[in-house]
């Protein structure tokens, strides 16, 4: 009769007794359980980062800027910003400007993916993830619809841009 093991180390020890390759044994034991918790970001830091990002996008004539609140719904970031650019060069410039402006304010850990002529550029600033799309790609992937508050409630999604009515 087999005993149930309660910890990953015990599962590995149990798997070592079973015939097979180390790879098969590791697969049978399953993934290691590690408790990775994100430290909550201070609200004023998040607000400052968000204002730098949205101001930079507005200066660069980004269209349809949307900020989605991810708190409690995702563990990789607290906010997601989605914006549209009309050309590869504009999108690359928007990404470069955001990275530069965040760096000037001391937020130096910004990772940029796809800035070399892509329909989709991703900036990971840790607590805020920025997606810059061409219009066709934005509609195809529909990230803000996937993460939008419309699926939960209308309070979590905030549109930021020119010409919108406050109220």
Automatic annotation (TrEMBL):
<dbReference type="InterPro" id="IPR043519">
    <property type="entry name" value="NT_sf"/>
</dbReference>
<dbReference type="Pfam" id="PF02410">
    <property type="entry name" value="RsfS"/>
</dbReference>
<feature type="region of interest" description="Disordered">
    <location>
        <begin position="1"/>
        <end position="36"/>
    </location>
</feature>
<dbReference type="InterPro" id="IPR004394">
    <property type="entry name" value="Iojap/RsfS/C7orf30"/>
</dbReference>
<keyword id="KW-0810">Translation regulation</keyword>
<keyword id="KW-0678">Repressor</keyword>
<keyword id="KW-0963">Cytoplasm</keyword>
<comment type="function">
    <text>Functions as a ribosomal silencing factor. Interacts with ribosomal protein uL14 (rplN), blocking formation of intersubunit bridge B8. Prevents association of the 30S and 50S ribosomal subunits and the formation of functional ribosomes, thus repressing translation.</text>
</comment>
<protein>
    <recommendedName>
        <fullName>Ribosomal silencing factor RsfS</fullName>
    </recommendedName>
</protein>
<comment type="similarity">
    <text>Belongs to the Iojap/RsfS family.</text>
</comment>
<comment type="subunit">
    <text>Interacts with ribosomal protein uL14 (rplN).</text>
</comment>
């Amino acid at each position: 009769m087999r005993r149930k093991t309660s910890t990953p180390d015990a599962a590995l020890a149990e798997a070592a007794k079973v015939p097979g390759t180390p790879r098969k044994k590791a697969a049978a034991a399953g993934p290691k359980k590690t408790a990775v918790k994100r430290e909550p970001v201070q609200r004023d830091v998040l607000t400052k980062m968000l204002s730098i990002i949205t101001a930079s996008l507005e200066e660069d004539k980004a269209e349809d800027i949307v900020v989605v609140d991810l708190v409690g719904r995702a563990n990789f970031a607290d906010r997601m910003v989605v914006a549209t650019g009309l050309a590869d060069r504009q999108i690359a410039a928007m990404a470069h400007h955001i990275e530069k402006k965040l760096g000037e304010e001391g937020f130096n850990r910004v990772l940029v993916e796809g800035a070399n002529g892509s329909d989709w550029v991703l900036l990971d600033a840790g607590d805020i993830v920025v997606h810059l799309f061409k219009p066709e790609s934005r509609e195809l992937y529909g990230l803000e619809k996937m993460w939008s508050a419309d699926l939960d409630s209308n309070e979590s999604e905030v549109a930021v841009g020119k010409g919108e009515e406050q109220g």
